[in-house]
Amino acid sequence: MTSLRRYVAATVVLVCVAGACSSQATATGSTAPTRTARSTATLAPTPTTGSTVLGGPVAVGGDLCGLLGPGDFASVGVVGAVMPTKNSDDASDAYCVYSGVSGATGGIEFDVYLGDAAATYQEILLNGGITTNDAVGDLPGVTAAGTTMDGAGDMATIGVQKGQLTFDIDIPTSASARAELISLAVLVLQRERGLSS
Length: 197
Description:
Layout: H1 2-17, E1 58-59, H2 70-76, E2 85-87, E3 93-99, E4 108-114, H3 117-128, E5 144-151, E6 155-162, E7 165-172, H4 177-191, E8 192-193
């Protein structure tokens, strides 16, 4: 009888890991947006192991931090991201920290804003130490995009403006940081659903 119980318990665990569980609780206790049509399961990460949770499409009024998940950072080579701590004034902006206190202190951060894009982009340039629009050619369809690999606290940053959508991503600097930032920005641009218009 004991071996049958172990078999049933192992089967339940495997089914949940495969994405058949219906829990949507995140590490912060809120309901996560549906990530894919296949599975709505979100596994809460542990701070030491990170997470495989990916971001997904977000429309106006949705959870802006949901554009990038910790698994997206891991997939491009940025280690240490966990489910973000979200700080937001309202539905038109979000400050999402995936590691550490902030990007400027060596952490992983994604900030996203809707509206007043030109002024917001100028603020991102100033705060991130970005001096050029060197990434416009890497991100077709954007209004402006620039990077820096030597920001405060050994931070690498990309700032992007597309219509009314403006965002920046901060990661620790490395030899591959620029390529990682471009890849993450591409994901955000693929997932925004009407945020830029």
